[in-house]
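Q: Could you write out the predicted structure for this multi-component system? I'm mainly interested in how the pieces pack against one another.
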Amino acid sequence: MVNRQPIIAVIGAGIAGLEAASQLAALGYKPVLIEKAPVVGGHVAEWNRLFPDMTPAEDVLQPLLAGTAKVRTLLNTEISAINRLKDEYNLILSDGSSLLCQAVLFATGFHLFDASKKEEYGYGIYDRVITNRDLEQWFNSRQDARIDKPRAVGFVHCVGSRDLKAGNPQCSKVCCITAIKQAIEMKEEFPDAEIYCFYMDLRLFGKKYEDFYIRAQRDYGIHFIRGRISEVGEAIDNRVVVKAEDTLSGKPVKVTLDLLVLMAGIVCNPDAQQYAREIGVAVDEDGFLKSRNNLAAITDSSRPGVFFAGACTGAKTVPETLAEARSAALAIHNYFNSRG
Amino acid sequence: MRERFASGFDPFVIPFVIGMAFVLGYCLIAMIRVICQLPKADRKRFLLSLITPKYIWMNLRDIFLNCLIHVKLWKRNKVLGYMHSSIAFGWFMLIVLGHLEVMLFVPERIHLFYYPIFFNYFVAETEQTLQGALLMFLMDFFLLMVLSGILIAIIKRFASRIVGMRRTTRLSALDRVGLYSLWAIFPLRLLAESFTAHISGGSFMTIPANWLFRQFLGNDLNALPTWWAYSIALCIFMCVLPFTRYMHIPAEMLLIPMRNAGIKIRHPRKGFALLEVYSCPGCGVCIDACPMSVRKTNCKDATVYLNRQLRRGNERRIAEISDKCLLCGKCSAVCQVGVQGPELRVAQRERRKFALTPSYTGMDVQPLTAAVAGKGGVLYFAGCMTQLTPSIRRATASLLDKAGVRWHLMDPDGGLCCGRPLMMAGRSEQARELIAKNLEIIRASGCDTLLLSCPICYKVFKEEYPLEGVRVVHHSVFFQELIAAGKLSVTHEDGLRLVWHDPCELGRGCGIYEQPRQALATAGEIVEAGMHHAESICCGGSLGSLTLSYEQRQPMTQNALDNLTVADPDQIVTGCPLCLATFVRMADRPVRDLAEVLDEHC
């Protein structure tokens, strides 16, 4: 081996990056975590509790932080440019330094869809319209003037997911179950409130998800209405008036709510697309990074030495992301072994 | 000047006479047919206009300017303008001067209508008269003019980009016959006149050519065959004319007086619609203009091809082209003849039979009794698109309050549709039912101004609602007036570059271009798009198209955005909620409604 301890740049210190970095460090490599934000943990760090067991997000993060305690972590650091050399990659960082590495792992994750793009739902226009992230932050901080003892709460599924006109035809996978989780939490918080979920399909594929859905109906009395919301208006008292069609009964529905939560979908991190272009890594039609093989090599890119982990290739749940991060670490290990 | 033949006849004139008789007979019958197909009231109106001095003058002026000089085309493209006017005006002058020659020199032959055309064959110049020399000069001059036009036409056919057209029409087989015979006519005439110039006299072109040909060709042998060829070329051209795009020449001469008389399309295939179809010169200017042409496959859906399919009666293609169109009206705006592409298409849509015809007569309406009665009362109809873009409604309301206007929202809870989408889909009867319902609400409110923030609604309220005594106004105009009257004070933000997108329905549809720009100029600096005003490009989101999918519209939207951002503005501003919603999805910079921009600076 020419280089005894190859350096691996791990872009993004969300759960995928943290898990992969800790595994790589354990395998004897030198991972370097590069994080744009001032803290590690990514989206999970912003979340309060996680489906389906209501696990505090903190509990997922703690072991990851412990595993990466010794890993070199660059916070508040962006990547200005990436150059592809013969067998190596050179990263120019925002602090002016450069990092020469033998492999790059994209753990760039996702961006939440900007809900204000769906103007008809009134996010950013009406006071009582918030997103799933806003609600999760309220669970953490309990500080949001928009949430004031609501007596009627609505959840809108698929905001910016499965929506061709929003530019995202793909399913964001985790919002169905997140909406049910948040609906249950709101019902626990405000037992007198009526909770409505407006969905087009419920995709409850994961372990315990279906039980969760049944409990939401049976134990919490949450109303599930199949139909997309056509428009949202504002009543004189600042409450929001929601019009939808209940496609099961074939009737129009109109409800006035104190709070409307938009389940903003998952879109690819635009930074990841930029880096991918710079080193000639393929981007898929849906905007996410393109794996070499969607079945057998999801963590491999089209370039040797460039690997993927987590939501940079598509919407993923927490366990999927963690499993993929480990898998990516192993793929990198095999890559260096095969190069001898 | 004396005649060479006592009979004043030669068999070579026969093809010309046949062609001429055919084309005149055909056009006469077609004209009578079109006039008979008009509804009775329209027919009366048209015939009356023909004997009204004001219209007579208007018709003569328009025919001269449009059919002969092609003024509109000159304004658009000088090379094409010269090409058309040189051929049309030059040819016209050749015919007029030919008649003049006959009248001056052999007045007894004027009843032979081939005589002026073949004058040079039948006469011999015995002495040089000043009169003769002048006319001969003029004849050569106009022939040269036509030939120069033909030369450009030939160049255009093989390299349309040289004359500034990106795409031109694909010709049908008969069009080609017409085109090649038209190209042949004038060179043949030059040859024929040159071969006889030592007998009949000539001028600066024909006499030198005669001298040149004498050196190696032998003029007398070639003269008669060339006159035959000239006559046959004329015959072919005139015989195919009714079945080619050249039918636009006679058709336009009827179209102009009918349009001046205010005749509109009442039937999808008869009367005025038929005349418009035949007036299409097939030039293909509409292909480059059409927003759908960004996709190469949609080039076949331009108005020129609709007209062709209407002439061929290809129902499948007629329905396809008619349903696909965005009805943005740009083809009409650039059309030299003024063929109303969108109106023709909507008329075709009206032919369709629907399995379901919902009735709106039973709908409940809640009249806003005297909500804003009296002078200065403004009723604001936001419309369905504005319901989907709530920030426009909010900004409009805020501006109205700031200006101290007494106003009321007509559709706080989502009102009835204005009827325009139904009209565009060709279902005007259903639209009428909605119009009646809305009228009830508007009348009951007692307002004297109806304010619209959606140009789609604005156009239908303005054109189809009998709202005498109520002013129908688009918010861009209303706010401009409020600013001008000092009721709204807008603070100017230096360095804020704004581009105004002219929505199809507001600009080409209602002719409102300047007021929004004036209003916007109070808030920032206006930059113009690549194409603007009447040439503005449809956003691609239009309700007009019944069949274009979202993916097919995307390249059109991108093209419109590229056009809007040539001057790199900070914001794109428009006055149509549908344009806004369409642009927002793909724009790389903020897209806002005029009301939002003004409200922010107020």
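A: Regarding packing and overall arrangement: Chain A has a mean pLDDT of 93.
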